[in-house]
């Protein structure tokens, strides 16, 4: 027990590090930039003008092609890594203000965020290193390999259900404005609070809808034994565009994703870290 308490105390001290806090806040700025570019690519897909993947890897490649883009991509990778460490510590010993099942659920969510931030950090590094960071093709290839293994289709289908569930959870999280309890609302003006509420709701609901559609496509890929359907967010956005009124819906999602990018900038200042 003493070893466990010592480990928790060490983790808690690390979580309270001022440097980690500053890097995590910088990470939110990078996260916001990625989502603004992600929203722009989604908007291009809505009007049939996008030549790159409509996801985070496409956004990072777009950024890397700009002046000083590689420097910004590396900075985003460092910021994402800091956010991953922060959320890993939250998953391990954090959310002490919560009690019982609420704390357990928050720690699970922090664990999921850790994986997302690590994936973004790795993607950013691959973009900087000019490695293959086409996430849509990589996901299709991985799905094809899994389907060839025993029980692989079940595993792919389960992953799709989990992803769809995460998307639905984001929608509920945004609609119920649960993100507000993570902000220092006491330090915010009334107008800033209203802005954060609107941006957060639009952002989480839009991202959640995109993730839910992506998860359903992965499930369909498993059912129909068609890995080409499992190409991630890019495929989900393009399939949505091709439906009746799809361009309008995709435009709204793109604007919502961009709104989440602006919300990330507010989080860099007011998020409880």
Automatic annotation (TrEMBL):
| Membrane-crossing segments per the record | 28-48, 68-89, 110-128, 154-175, 204-225, 245-266
InterPro entries, sorted: DUF1206
State a single Pfam family of this protein: DUF1206
- What does the UniProt keyword field contain? Membrane, Transmembrane, Transmembrane helix
Q: Does the keyword Transmembrane apply?
A: yes
Keyword Membrane tagged: yes
Name used for this protein in its record: DUF1206 domain-containing protein
Q: Which organism is it from?
A: Micromonospora qiuiae
Q: What is the lineage of its organism?
A: Bacteria, Bacillati, Actinomycetota, Actinomycetes, Micromonosporales
């Amino acid at each position: 027990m003493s070893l466990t308490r010592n480990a928790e105390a060490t983790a808690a001290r690390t979580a309270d590090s001022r440097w980690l806090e500053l890097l995590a806040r910088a990470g939110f700025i990078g996260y916001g930039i990625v989502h603004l570019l992600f929203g722009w690519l989604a908007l291009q897909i809505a009007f049939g003008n996008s030549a790159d993947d409509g996801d985070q890897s496409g956004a990072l490649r777009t950024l890397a092609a700009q002046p000083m883009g590689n420097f910004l991509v590396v900075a985003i990778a460092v910021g994402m890594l800091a956010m991953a460490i922060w959320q890993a510590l939250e998953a391990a010993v954090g959310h002490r203000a919560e009690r019982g099942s609420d704390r357990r659920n928050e720690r699970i969510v922090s664990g999921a965020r850790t994986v997302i931030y690590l994936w973004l950090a790795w993607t950013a590094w691959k973009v900087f290193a000019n490695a293959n960071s086409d996430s849509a093709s990589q996901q299709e290839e991985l799905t094809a390999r899994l389907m060839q293994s025993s029980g692989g289709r079940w595993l792919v289908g389960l992953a799709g259900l989990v992803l769809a569930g995460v998307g639905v959870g984001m929608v509920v999280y945004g609609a119920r404005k649960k993100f507000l309890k993570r902000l220092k609302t006491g330090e915010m003006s009334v107008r800033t609070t209203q802005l954060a509420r609107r941006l957060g709701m639009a952002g989480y609901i839009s991202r959640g809808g995109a993730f839910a559609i992506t998860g359903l496509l992965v499930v369909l890929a498993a059912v129909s034994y068609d890995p080409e359907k499992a190409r991630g967010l890019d495929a989900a956005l393009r399939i949505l565009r091709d439906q009746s009124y799809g361009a309008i819906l995709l435009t709204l999602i793109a604007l919502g994703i961009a709104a989440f990018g602006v919300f990330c900038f507010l989080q860099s200042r007011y998020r409880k870290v």
